[in-house]
Amino acid sequence: MLIITVLGVPNSSSTASLQQVKVELKDAVAGITELNLSTDQIMVFFVESISTRYPESGIAVFIDGLSDEPDRTNDVRARLAKLVGKTILLSFPQRRLSECLIRPFQPELGFWSSADESSGE
Question: Whole-prediction pTM value?
Fold first, then answer.
């Protein structure tokens, strides 16, 4: 499961507009064939900006849960970060900066999923 967390979303964003961005992100990411992910395997969460003092501040995006697989090269990861970052920047033009970071996923350090429970593991 790939998890995309978007921090710094403008407080004025409507539920409908966030839903549209969510669909665009999921479709775009699923379109990177090397990731071998369907839209159902991608979760997107938005966190509104908690500071009204700096409404022009940027947006930070974190991508978690991307396991290492041979097709998921550094170039593919760089394409993913750029695609997600640009999608967010276009979706929230009032923000002047968008940065996207892919965090390493190391399940051996601790990981659980309800999907494991349904498979009997």
Answer: 0.87
121 within 8 A of 81, measured Cβ to Cβ = no
**Residues 5, 29: Cα–Cα separation, whole Å:** 14
Residue 119 is classified by DSSP as T
Tens of pLDDT, residues 81-106 = 999 999 999 998 888 788 999 998 88
3.40.50.1860, 3.50.50.60, 3.40.50.2000, 3.30.429.10: CATH of 2-48+61-103: 3.30.429.10
pLDDT by residue (tens digit) across 16-59? Answer: 999 999 999 999 999 999 999 999 999 999 987 765 555 567 88
